[in-house]
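Hey,

Quick one before I head out. I ran the complex with fe (ii) ion overnight. Inputs first:
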Amino acid sequence: MQASRVPANMDVFTRSPGMTKPESSVEKLVVLPKMDDQDPADHAWADASFAADILAEHAFFFALLMPVEVAAKERAEALRFRETFSALHDQIGTQGPPPRSELKGFVANITEQIKPFIEYKARLGEAQSTGQLRSLVWPLFFDHTRHEAERWERRLNDLANGESAFDRTEVVKFWTNIMDEHARFVAHLLDPDEVALIETAFSTGAVFRDLGDDSVGGTLSALANEPGTVVGSLVQNPDVDAVMSAVNTILDFKTQTVRDIEAGKIKSIIDPRLADHVRREALKFLNELKRAV
Ligand SMILES: [Fe+2]
Ligand SMILES: [Fe+2]
């Protein structure tokens, strides 16, 4: 998202709070409705823009992990999806939030394009897990990105029906699972010599697994299983609940990680664009959690 395209009633989120432009060529800005804005059309526009870019990136990450020697056809398909969602993202940015009377049509245009990509992720995830496909995309990466696409489709349909409010139980259940999986992806993409970081990534994943049911019991078991990680995050963010505290901590961790990857300070096979992608998803989780009732 270019700063020039930001509608006046939206907030812009940068890696460092208060900046007006990206700090590097990899950073993408996140544009979301102001905290008190519940207009479904504003949310539909912002979430559609966020999702279209995220989906274009999923397609690009698949292509990076599909050498032509083993998956030429699947790679070409991925690159076509990338073009589709990049074009959609541009179109959403140019047209701005839809009038309320056009909200349903606006959403339908996007969800119709998401459906074939969900089907692709399901089909290739099955092929990869049964050994018919031998790409470098893990089955869990196909599932993870499919769950995100399915959730964007649900969210946009809710917005088309005029419902912009987030349900805390759904937000926590969905995003804690996503954060857990990100942490495990990172653990497996780090250089095997990055022993301490790999351990941090695995314990972070375990904390989010325990926090997923958003209960006192979940917090206690997170504390019992990964005391260092949970106490560390509560010490850094003492005034908020355990889930919010953990999300703040993982957002800080991902922001630092993407900077260190860009600077070559971490040894890994993590593309900086993937690191920024998971950072923006953590940011979206935090923003939804603040709005959730
Ligand atoms: Fe994603
Ligand atoms: Fe993700």
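The radius of gyration is 19 Å.

Talk tomorrow,
K.
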